[in-house]
Amino acid sequence: VTTDRAPDAGTFGDDAVPVELVEAGRRRTATRRRAAHALQRASHRRRIATTSIVGALVVVSVGLADAGVQRTLPTAASPSTAATSAQALKGANALLARVARTFRADQLMLTRLEDSTKAALSARSPVVIVAPTPYLPATMPTSGAPAPAVHVVTGASSAG
Amino acid sequence: VPAEHVIAREPITVDEHEIRGTTTAMASTITVRVPRPPRGGGSPDSEELTTLHAGVASSLLTFVDVERACTRFDSTSALSRANAAPRRWRVVPDLLYRAAVESYAAYRRTAGRFDPRVLNTLVALGYGSSLAFEAGGVTTAARSVEPPRSPPLPWRFRHRAGRRAIHLGGSAIDLGGIGKGLAVRWAGERLSRVTSDFLVEAGGDCYCAGAAPGGESWLVGVEDPAGSNTPVAVLALRDRAVATSSTRLRQWRAGAELVHHLIDPATSRPGGDGLSAVTVVARDPAWAEVWSKVLFLEGPARIADAARRHDVDALWIDGAGTISMSDSLGPAVTWRAP
């Protein structure tokens, strides 16, 4: 601030011009400085106000949209409470918690599967030698010969 | 823990030819077979063999998971809970969501000939709970079946992918057949991440990927619906699924009437009179299952035309034991009964 001088202040010496002119110049400079500060503050207020209003609108819109979605799925929504933003957040938290639990359960299952597999292979006990299945070539006679051994049979099942 | 449970109950075995895993799910014996790597996978603790072993275990788990979500025989399953309130939206497990959506796709593509809403008829015929068909002689106290609407009301199924929510459109559904086909598909998808050669079998439905041990095609026997031990035909397949709809096992006496489980949605009665079994070969296990059922319902007089019209590779056996097949299936048949 101390180095901020009016453009014309340096062109006048105090002893070369009348005191009235010097005072008038100083008043003009002060007035310009105050006007500049006022404009700057107004500009800041406009930016903050615009951002706040837009943000509020977004929050309200999301809340309304979520409430609409909740209404279209009655079985998934709480029937006794309105779908407010706070409840939407609570529901989202609960959903995330469920997802996290599912992931943990999956991870546990995979870990146990891996352990079980390693144990089964290292123990060699499950390595059971079954009677080798005869594998016959695909070019077989279509009649007059006994049915070839097959890998699998398709037919009736006892239940679906 | 399912993984330990499956492995502990039925150990995954490794012999000189293959890795084989077995479990029981969906009232069927599930078998997964993977040819053993010819070289490099020799030692039991090799990384490749360990990976294949884990892949087999993982694919077996698929059936346990699908059964848990999609069975109608467990009142606590996700499907049973959805069926209990078919006029409401319900957020369901991912597997049930996908199965229901696939089921609706099949309903649309077959113009309603595949319709999982036939559950109501099955229940009315006394098949509301699991029945001991293997023992034979099953008898139920059937209720009278409501006369069908002509044509049946469209199925107003709706779903929302983001929330995994389904609306059954007012009717309970049965995902038994297509559920098994989907389980075979999903198990195969898991296995295909670790190998291109494998076989997944689930009580009559199967998927044959790549080559069998020894490098040959997988050989699939088509069961004789009359019950003999000799197949009526043998198919050599690679990268193909097979499914069979048959009345050999699941038929019973509902009151005084002999009925079976293949219900025609147009009549709300057991359909396909004159046919004993239909086998379909397709790229996808779930669609093989769907088409085998749809073609069965066409009956002996219309099945050939329907198979041609829908471009389905099929083999069927009528009540007299006569075997017929679509021309397009011919190259896959390596043997047939004289």
Descriptive notes:
By secondary structure, chain A is mostly helical. Chain A is built from 2 helices and 1 strand; from the N terminus they run ααβ. Chain A has helices at 19-72, 85-123; one strand at 152-154. Chain A is rod-shaped. By secondary structure, chain B is of the alpha+beta class. Chain B has helices spanning 2-9, 47-70, 78-84, 94-109, 119-124, 176-191, 285-309, and strands spanning 13-14, 18-25, 28-35, 89-91, 139-140, 158-160, 165-167, 198-202, 205-209, 218-222, 233-237, 240-246, 251-254, 257-260, 263-264, 269-270, 275-282, 313-318, 323-325, 333-336. In chain B, helix 1 (2-9) crosses helix 2 (47-70). Classes of the chains: A mainly alpha (160), B alpha+beta (338). Chains A and B meet through helix 2 and strand 1 of A and helix 1, strand 1, strand 3, helix 2 and strand 4 of B.
